[in-house]
Design brief:
- The chain is an alpha+beta fold.
- The chain has two domains: 2-85; 104-342, Bira Bifunctional Protein, Domain 2 (BirA Bifunctional Protein, domain 2), CATH 3.30.930.
- It is built from twelve helices and nine strands.
- The strands form two sheets. Strands 1-4-5-9-8-7-6 form a seven-stranded mixed β-sheet, with helices on both faces. The chain has a two-stranded antiparallel ribbon with strand order 2-3.
- Helix 1 packs parallel to helix 4 (50-87).
- The longest helix has 38 residues, at 50-87.
- The radius of gyration is 41 Å and the shape is rod-shaped.
- Bound molecules: 3,4-dihydroxyphenylalanine.
């Protein structure tokens, strides 16, 4: 009877297997704990007749030994597996990592900032929601200047549904930051003002209701037009290559006198004339001029003591010249097929 039980358990012990450490512990308890099946057989051993004790005792010891050996064997296997798992470097980031890309407008804006910071310009910022005074009034715009017109400027209604023009508006150019800086700082002033601007335009490939500008302003004693020209030539060569030439054409802006528009030699054909520059060899990139004394005075700066220059350029325009992005809408559609093309920039 006892012999049969021993044989039966021996069979079970030989087949014993466990999928994990918990299952193994359950097996140990089942066979070898105080209330385990093998331990129970040892208890029965007391009743075995003396003449069989030797044989059955040996069988029982063998059974217990085999059970212990098998359990230890399995335990070692699990421990080895665990050690192997711990060898994995879990701090390693998974592969492959989908990296984001810089937006082309950010790339170009930062490049402009970098170039001017090398000649002493610092960054200044102003609000996008502005008032008429800072965007137009102090910049010498006549009260009836067409730029203030509803066609161009987004006015903010103070009361919902009241459509008459108010004083609060979305800035239509970053020249407004000039007035903010000049009224809050004393010369010498040398700032670059990057930012978003808004205009009430129908969205097309060539126009958008918002875009980006970088404004430059330098105010000090004895600042001349030659200083402006030098700074812009330096910028153009850094941005578009050392062979780049510039050309200043007389123009008009209310806040500068004299005013000019600046062209660079076409960076596609090198100035010989192509379809991009419409055969002229030149492309326009910015407006500039000497800060009008009226503007200095409106901002509390003595125009007899100080003079200065200003310039303003469109970041989209520069990006178009650098990366040939012709359709303005691409910049704000967030199409990853477009954005991924700037991965290596
Ligand atoms: N504010 C002008 C615009 O939005 C650009 C500009 C022209 C800025 C001449 C200037 C400047 O500072 O001197 O078209």
């Amino acid at each position: 009877m006892l012999k049969d039980s021993i044989q039966n358990l021996l069979g079970q012990v030989r087949e014993m297997n466990a999928a994990n450490a918990e299952e193994l512990e359950a097996l140990r308890i089942k066979y070898l704990s105080k209330k385990g099946e093998i331990t129970a057989l040892f208890n029965e051993f007391r009743e075995v007749p003396a003449d069989q004790k030797r044989e059955i005792g040996q069988m029982l010891n063998q059974l217990r030994q085999q059970a212990e050996t098998r359990i230890n064997e399995l335990k070692e296997q699990f421990e080895a597996k665990k050690a192997e798992a711990e060898k994995l470097d879990l701090t390693r980031t998974p592969d492959p990592i989908a990296l984001g890309t810089r937006h082309p407008l950010s790339l170009v804006r930062e490049e402009i900032e970098d170039i001017f910071s090398r000649i002493g310009f610092t960054i200044a910022q102003g609000p996008e929601v502005e008032d008429d005074k800072h965007v137009y009034g102090m910049l010498n715009f006549a009260p009836e200047h067409p730029a203030r017109d509803m066609q161009d400027t987004f006015f903010i209604e103070k009361e919902i549904g009241v459509q008459k023009p108010t004083d609060v508006l979305l800035r239509s150019h970053t020249s407004s930051v000039q007035t903010r800086v000049m009224t809050s700082q004393k010369p010498p002033i040398r700032v670059l003002c990057p930012g978003r601007v808004y205009r009430n335009e129908a969205i097309s490939a060539r126009a958008h209701c918002f875009f980006h500008q970088v404004e430059g302003l330098y105010i000090d004693k004895n600042v001349s037009f030659a200083d402006l020209r030098e700074a812009l030539l330096y910028f153009s060569k850094e941005m578009f290559g050392p062979e780049t030439k510039i050309r200043l054409r007389p123009s008009y802006f209310p806040f500068t006198e004299p005013s000019a528009e600046m062209d660079i030699s076409c960076n596609i054909c090198g100035g010989t004339g192509c379809s991009f520059c419409k055969g002229t060899g030149w492309v326009e990139i910015l407006g500039c001029g000497m800060v009008d004394p009226n503007v200095l005075e409106a901002c509390g700066i003595d125009s007899k003591e100080y003079s200065g220059y200003a310039f303003g350029m469109g970041v989209e325009r520069i990006t178009n010249l650098k990366y040939r992005v012709k359709d303005l809408r691409l910049f704000s559609e967030n199409d990853v097929r477009f954005l991924r093309q700037f991965e290596s920039c």
